[in-house]
């Protein structure tokens, strides 16, 4: 306390912005009712992530609307209900979707996931994490090059070097349908080996395979389709938070965000569609698409701040979360050095990639 007062006093005298006593610390929030707590970068991983505790890093969030949603119990949905999109009650574009789904394979995903998991880790503040981002950016560009209309951009972040990456297939209108997956990883500390195969190399290769198929086919959507590869999810949803904050400020019309975080470990053989901290109407539609194209689904809830759909939601956009398995039977290797390529169940990856192509085709006509 003594030091804190001194620092504030000195900063006031010099006319500088007061140096917070919390310099170097991060403010994280673990529940709607949690006002936030200051922790070190390392504690975010070792004391929360590695112990299965979810949080949102709210250090940079200044928008009162976003903070209000992050502090509201999830079932209340106060602001979001006023922004509702009307979704179709079922699927209607099998004729367009099925030939594209037939092009989905595991050949490229296996090659991409091998490279992703060979990085020592993809921790968002490590040099490995930056190298992985560079490789992913180049790879997305190569995949997208099949259709020159597709753009690929890096979304840089001010507090860390790992950029997020966004590919866009322009539609005949600017309304957005977004599929997303984070590509950073953690092995349980900032320096641990973190192959991040299921979490979330699997989600990355799933949406990249969907992009490959749609790019090769020169698929022309009505709505604009975006593929988001987020940095810094394991640090408290940092990449997605910055992207959706920018989209909110730009007043982008987002029809749907379908997030996939873990798509390669599924003893049940069924896609699991999570029901908490999501848009319920979009979730119903997402389940209809998944059921029509991949068969029966399961449901579960993963709690506060469990993945990047929470960032879309807190910025007022409709979001759903599609996972490979219910919590109780999901990968036992999460956030450890054992989340390895060899543990991936490739039938799950194929199922998620087919679902993703189906969803993008169906939702492109909303
Ligand atoms: Zn994770």
From TrEMBL:
Annotated Peptidase M28 domain residues: 165-358
Secretion signal, residue range per the UniProt entry: 1-19
EC number(s) from the headed UniProt entry: 3.4.-.-
Coiled coil: none
GO molecular function, one term: aminopeptidase activity
Keywords in alphabetical order: Aminopeptidase, Disulfide bond, Glycoprotein, Hydrolase, Metal-binding, Protease, Signal, Zinc, Zymogen
Quaternary structure and interacting proteins, as annotated: Monomer.
Family: Belongs to the peptidase M28 family. M28E subfamily.
Name of this protein: Peptide hydrolase
Naturally occurring in which organism (per UniProt): Lasiosphaeris hirsuta
């Amino acid at each position: 306390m003594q030091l804190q007062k001194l620092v504030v006093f000195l900063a006031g005298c010099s006319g500088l912005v007061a140096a917070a006593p919390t310099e170097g610390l991060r403010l994280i929030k673990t529940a709607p009712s949690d006002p936030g707590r200051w922790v070190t970068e390392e504690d975010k991983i070792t004391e929360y992530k590695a112990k299965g505790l979810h949080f949102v890093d709210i250090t940079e969030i200044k928008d009162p609307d976003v903070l209000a949603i992050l502090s509201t119990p999830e079932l209340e949905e106060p602001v979001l209900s006023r922004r509702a999109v009307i979704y179709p009650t079922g699927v209607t574009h099998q004729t367009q979707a099925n030939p594209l789904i037939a092009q989905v394979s595991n050949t490229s995903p296996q090659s991409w996931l091998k490279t992703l998991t060979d990085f020592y880790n993809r921790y968002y503040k490590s040099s490995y994490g930056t190298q992985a981002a560079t490789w992913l950016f180049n790879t997305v560009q190569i995949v997208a090059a099949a259709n020159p209309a597709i753009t690929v951009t890096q979304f840089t972040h001010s507090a860390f070097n790992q950029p997020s990456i966004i590919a866009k297939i322009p539609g005949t209108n600017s309304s957005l349908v977004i599929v997303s997956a984070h590509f950073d990883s953690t092995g349980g500390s900032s320096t641990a080996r973190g192959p991040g195969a299921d979490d979330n190399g699997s989600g990355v290769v799933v949406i990249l395979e969907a992009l490959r198929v749609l790019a090769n086919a020169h698929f022309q959507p009505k709505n604009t389709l975006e593929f988001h590869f987020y940095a810094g999810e394991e640090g408290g949803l940092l990449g997605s938070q910055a992207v959706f904050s920018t989209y909110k400020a730009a007043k982008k019309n987002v029809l749907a965000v379908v997030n996939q975080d873990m798509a390669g470990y599924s003893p049940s053989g069924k896609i699991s569609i999570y029901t908490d901290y999501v848009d319920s109407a979009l979730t119903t539609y997402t389940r209809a698409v998944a059921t029509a194209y991949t068969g029966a689904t399961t449901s579960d809830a993963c709690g506060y701040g469990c993945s990047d759909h929470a960032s879309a939601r807190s910025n007022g956009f409709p979001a759903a979360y599609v996972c490979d398995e219910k919590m109780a039977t999901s990968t036992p290797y999460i956030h450890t050095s054992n989340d390895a390529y060899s543990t991936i169940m490739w039938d799950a990856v194929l199922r998620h990639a087919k679902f993703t192509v189906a969803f993008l085709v169906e939702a492109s006509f909303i």
